[in-house]
Amino acid sequence: MKITLLVLLFLFVINPFASISQTAIFVKNDRGTTEVPFAKAAKTATKIIIDGNIDEQAWFEGVSANNFWQMFPTDSVMAEFQTEIFFTYDDENFYVAAKCYARSDQYVVPSLRRDFRAGGSDNLTFLFDTFNDQTNAFFFGANPAGVLREGLISNGGSGREDFSESWDNRWEGESKIHDGYWACEMAIPFKTIRFQEGSMKWRFNAYRFDTQLNERSTWFRIPQNQFITNLAFMGNLNWENPLQKPGKNLVVIPYVSADLSRDFETDATNYSGNFSIGGDAKVAITSGLNLDLTVNPDFSQVEVDRQVTNLQRFEVFFPERRQFFLENADLFGSFGDTRINPFFSRRIGVAEDTSTDLTIQNPIYFGARLSGKLNENWRLGLLNMQTADDEENDLPSFNYIVAALQRKVFARSNIGAIFVNKQTFSDRDSETYNRYNRIVGLDYNLGTIDNTWSGKTYFHKAITPEDVDKKFAHGAELDYRVRQFSIRWKHSWVGDGYNPEVGFVPRKDFFQMRPEARLFFYPNNDKVVQHGPVVQAFWLYTPGYGNTDHEVRFRWEVRMRDNTNIEAEIKNEYTFLFDDFDPTRKEDYYLPAGTSYSYTNFSLRYSSNRTKPFSFRIEPRFGEFFNGNRIGVRGDFTYRFQPFGNIALNYNVNRISLAEPFETAYLYLVGPRIDLTFTKKLFLTTFVQYNSQIDNLNINARFQWRFKPVSDFFIVYTDNYFPEDFSVKNRAIVAKFTYWLNM
Hints:
Layout: H1 2-18, E1 26-29, E2 32-35, E3 38-43, E4 69-72, E5 83-89, E6 93-101, E7 123-129, E8 137-142, E9 148-153, E10 163-164, E11 172-178, E12 181-189, E13 201-210, E14 215-218, E15 235-239, E16 250-263, E17 272-284, E18 289-295, H2 329-333, E19 350-353, E20 358-361, E21 364-373, E22 378-387, E23 398-409, E24 413-424, E25 436-447, E26 453-463, E27 472-481, E28 485-494, E29 510-513, E30 516-519, E31 528-542, E32 546-560, E33 565-576, E34 596-607, E35 614-625, E36 628-640, E37 645-657, E38 665-677, E39 682-691, E40 696-708, E41 711-721, E42 728-738, E43 741-742
Parallel strand pairs: 3-5, 3-15
Antiparallel strand pairs: 1-2, 4-14, 5-6, 6-12, 7-8, 7-13, 8-9, 9-10, 11-12, 13-14, 13-15, 16-17, 16-42, 16-43, 17-18, 18-21, 19-20, 21-22, 22-23, 23-24, 24-25, 25-26, 26-27, 27-28, 28-29, 28-30, 29-31, 30-31, 31-32, 32-33, 33-34, 34-35, 35-36, 36-37, 37-38, 38-39, 39-40, 40-41, 41-42
């Protein structure tokens, strides 16, 4: 507890100094003093036609956002080809338009699929911090072909894990290619997003990827050592009049689905069918607070998880993809850290198929989720869900309750509290589950005005029926980042009795430390943009055993001007085994419990320029592995046939030679994937995953027709085979229809 108090005291001490200049016209950072730019949206009574022409006079009544700065390949000059953004609004929508000037009309558009990734294509993305909290934001984007993307940014946007493209909502956008530039126009209903009623200002930024120059640029100047979506670096979008709460905002999204499946291992002759009706509803309680309801939800259209080769002793983390859980997901799921998380929404409605080790659905009867902003300083989240009884896996019907409350403090920091309750009211006796499991926790998240300092500290307590000690988890992280270097300290402590059944905690009973240091060099040449060394270490101590794991890495990273990336790494590991363990999961032999191993290996990584029609990533690895050796290579090959999609091959191949009595093991994970986008409304994704480690060959095809905004028809086909003789394990086909109704 002394560690926790010291960390909290230090974080509070440095915060006030970081917030002094938050209302000033200028912001100080490690690049000097930066003026905060502003744009202005004037209200219009003119109808705006969304066609990519930007010819209505209303676009030019306000103040445009221009003068973009380069962020890549350098961050010290203006963008070579500029971008100009215009704003206007009426009672129902706010409108955004932009002209993106370019060298030629040879743009890169990898596919016509909505929610494309920004890297490797021409595009422009707008970020709106509607509550001016520098913590959460909505983003909307488009490319020259008029393909749209939208999503959410959380936790200040300082890392890839804070960026989600899975959120979906109703809005309109179009692009058009002109002589010397491409243009886009968007109409975004005020009902689509959450904001503070009476607002006169939103924080705003935009970033653009220009593939012809291999250039990335932003409206607000962002240092190159920061993430491009970092919400610490934003200008202001001013409104001519205070924004009013939109009218009645109720959305109903019913669905109808039917499926046909057969489990060939238990019944090779009969198919089982199912017809299901259900739906979701979205109710705007206030302009910042939303109520999500679901009855008999069906997530069959969600793309299946990518399989992985697992050579570690612990569970692998897969992200949440289901739409119901996504808006304000950080309010519930960002407590603790990624490996010590008290609430992980995938624990609700997802179970494990014991025959294939793949995830399967555990039906949910109903659910309700109230989440959002109470005002600029307070956020609230309440969730309640009821799952079905699953006799096959010996699981009763469970009720899940999660309550989260967050209070903004200082410039970009917040304090959060969480309560998680999992409980069954079944009178069935079983040794496989507890009748209840509860977690209470408190987190403090640090973010200074220019993101020089960031971090967090937390303390969580488990309330369970087991009579055990140390039912707690604690952690702290502190990151200092400037232009030339960054240093990070992270530690965590998980007690032996800490068991969050609705969380993600792969191991217990340990104290660990994870320091890290980086140097950034910016050479003045035409080839290399940035390079430098990275030193990372990890020590884990187990009570009664001492140091049971450690890892020391030294890596050199190189970013090239042509968008290629190179890494070289040497890593030393030490592992003490508490239980018998087979790293290959293929043999009848085990490395015995109570033994320890020290081993060193090397790896290289090369990622080519993704703006080219053919791109690839290759990562060879070789060296010692426990009491033997490992040679492996992983990566991908991708060919783009613009703009109708791409063909990719993901691979991970390992040769593991352990000491006798083990035999040499060859592990193959190969995943060819074909992504076809016939139009901006018609998509087909097909992939095959062969995984020798779990002896499974999976084929999955997903057809999607978006016949109206946020209204879809899906057909999903899945097969699982035994690779040796291609005999079928199970097979299923699902058809689903969803429709978005504004009431």
